[in-house]
Design goal:
The structure holds two protein chains of two kinds. Chain A contains seven helices and ten strands. By secondary structure, chain A is α/β, with parallel strands linked by helices. Chain A has a domain of 67 residues. The radius of gyration of chain A is 19 Å and the shape is globular. Chain B is mainly α. Chain B contains eleven helices and no strands. Classes of the chains: A alpha/beta, B mainly alpha.
Chain lengths: 261, 269
């Protein structure tokens, strides 16, 4: 049977259990989510709800306990093809220059470095890092480092981009900047993005849909369509519609006792 | 730039301070011998030690060269073997449980006591001396390399796995460079241990090296010659240690301990 082609990522009845000395711990329970090709979906939830576990499962880094994940119609076994990952910490290698850090992705995937040099420089320029190609990570600010790690993830033109709270460690202003840059760059492509965050505003601003997750064990409580026009400017956050979405999400979490209203 | 300049000035002034203190000690020592006149056999003055060296500089330099060669060979072999062992320990559960446990257990044995055994096995040439040097120097290398290889960032390793990096790539591009600062820390300890090993080897058997010179001079109650050898040993140890320190600065400009002032170079972001 051919898998349904209108989902790029299909998560069905996904469950993850960690064995521990005091019995098994359920991290994820019966998760179901279809992500369309080119869609930007955020997973929003409090810390410890298993968002990162979900991302690791999709990246093929953690085996699932029950259910299954399909990528592009194929059941997942190991890291998917054409994948880019960005973590909360930029994990750049201190002994490499920014350019060489970005090119690491090509080396790991077994491509020729030379073939990706131009693309790397282009990406760095698009993220405002021109002039910093030959600097080392420790010479850059946190925001610039995270930009470089996004360039690394994008280098080999992935179809799926997994981002695990990539802006969680940045200050509010840098975070705004990067939110804007990310939507700008995502819009020009047809990349499917799964974005993990615990910021309601960030999730609404970036996403086509927001999947809300509850804690202990992690399960989806609702998936909300964000019907705001694109391209979105930061000022969209002051509109009534935007407020309506954030309020709805906050209310949802409050009902479950995760947030206070 | 300003940071590194300040750093080099700091280092210069540190060298100056060390020279000042050493000069003071030599003057006090010389003065003490002049005033209290202890028997020469207990404590010769620095001036006598210096002129003793000038009497036969060729002999001292030749024996020093021998000890230096033994130490360097033992040290380099210890680094090579130690790093290979560390990689094995990090990648193989079996080696970790056997080799690592064995090494740690062996480390608590006073290894110097094994030197005579090496003479029985390997004779009185350079081999037993190099072997003792390796035996002493390899422990800090293995232990610090294992520590460094293991300290790679788990997220970086996840990223490599998600990008289908080969195990060899992970070793060469992530784990090994990441282990270098730790390896250098181990090498700084190991170089002194290698020197100890070489001297102990020379004490036990053979007719070469500063250890041999000390033994002969001691037999003739020639304390001054003992002191000449000791001073040369001290100089050699210091030069070797700072040689590695220099190499570290050259190879690891990116490491935290080498950066002059990381705060100052941060652009606004």
């Amino acid at each position: 049977m051919k898998a349904n082609s209108d989902a790029y990522v299909r998560i069905s009845h996904l469950g993850k259990v960690y064995p521990s000395q005091r019995g098994d711990v359920e991290a994820l329970v019966d998760l179901n989510l279809d992500i369309r090709p080119g869609e930007f979906v955020s997973v929003l939830g409090p810390s410890g709800c298993g968002k990162s576990t979900l991302l690791k499962c999709i990246a093929g880094l953690e085996p699932v306990t029950s259910g299954n994940i399909q990528i592009n119609g194929r059941p997942l076994d190991g890291p998917p093809d054409r994948l880019g990952v960005v973590f909360q910490r930029d994990v750049l290698l201190d002994w490499r220059t920014i350019l060489n850090n970005v090119l690491l992705q090509a080396e790991f995937l077994g491509h020729k470095r030379a073939a990706y040099r131009d693309r790397a420089l282009q990406l760095l320029q698009r993220f405002g890092l021109q002039g910093f190609e030959d600097r080392h990570p420790w010479e850059l600010s946190g925001g610039m480092r995270q930009r470089a790690s996004i360039c690394r993830a994008l280098l080999c033109d992935p179809e799926l981009l997994l981002m695990d709270e990539p802006f969680g460690a940045l200050d509010a202003m840098t975070r705004d900047d990067l939110n804007l840059e990310l939507t700008r760059i995502w819009q020009g492509t047809n990349k499917t993005v799964l974005f993990i965050t615990h910021s309601i505003v960030e999730a609404v601003f970036l996403s086509d849909r927001v999947a809300m997750m509850s804690r202990g064990p992690g399960r989806f409580i609702d998936v909300i369509e964000i019907d705001l026009p694109r391209p979105r400017a930061l000022s969209v956050r002051e509109t009534q519609e935007f407020g309506h979405y954030t309020q709805k999400i906050r209310h949802h979490f409050a009902e479950l006792g995760i947030l206070q209203e | 730039m300003i940071g590194s300049l300040a750093n080099s000035v700091l280092r210069e002034s540190r060298t100056r301070d060390v020279i000042l203190v050493l000069t003071a000690i030599v003057i006090l020592w010389e003065g003490y011998v002049w005033i209290f006149e202890p028997p020469r056999i207990f404590l010769p003055p620095p001036s006598a030690i210096f002129s003793e060296f000038l009497k036969t500089p060729g002999i001292f330099v030749r024996h020093m060269g021998y000890t230096l060669a033994t130490t360097a060979t033992g040290f380099l072999l210890a680094v090579a073997l130690g790093v290979i062992a560390a990689v094995g320990i990090v990648y193989s559960r079996f080696l970790e449980r056997t080799l690592y446990t064995l090494l740690v257990a062996l480390n608590s044995v006073p290894k110097v006591a094994l030197a005579p055994l090496f003479v029985i096995w390997l004779g009185t040439g350079a081999e037993p001396k190099i072997s003792v040097a390796i035996m002493l120097a390899i422990f800090p290398i293995v232990i610090d390399s294992v520590l460094g290889l293991r300290s790679a960032d788990p997220d970086m390793l996840n990223l490599a796995r998600a990008t289908r990096a080969s195990p060899l790539q992970v070793l060469m591009k992530i784990r090994f460079p990441n282990a270098l600062p730790s390896l250098f820390a181990g090498m700084k300890v190991a170089i002194s241990f290698a020197l100890v090993g070489a001297i102990v080897g020379e004490f036990v058997a053979g007719g070469n090296g500063l250890g041999f010179l000390i033994l002969v001079a001691q037999g003739q109650f020639d304390t001054t010659r003992v002191f000449v050898s000791l001073v040369l040993l001290g100089l050699m140890g210091t030069v070797l240690f700072y040689g590695i320190d220099f190499l570290e600065r050259l190879m690891l400009p990116w490491h935290v301990s080498q950066r002059s002032d990381p705060g100052a170079t941060h652009p606004a972001g």
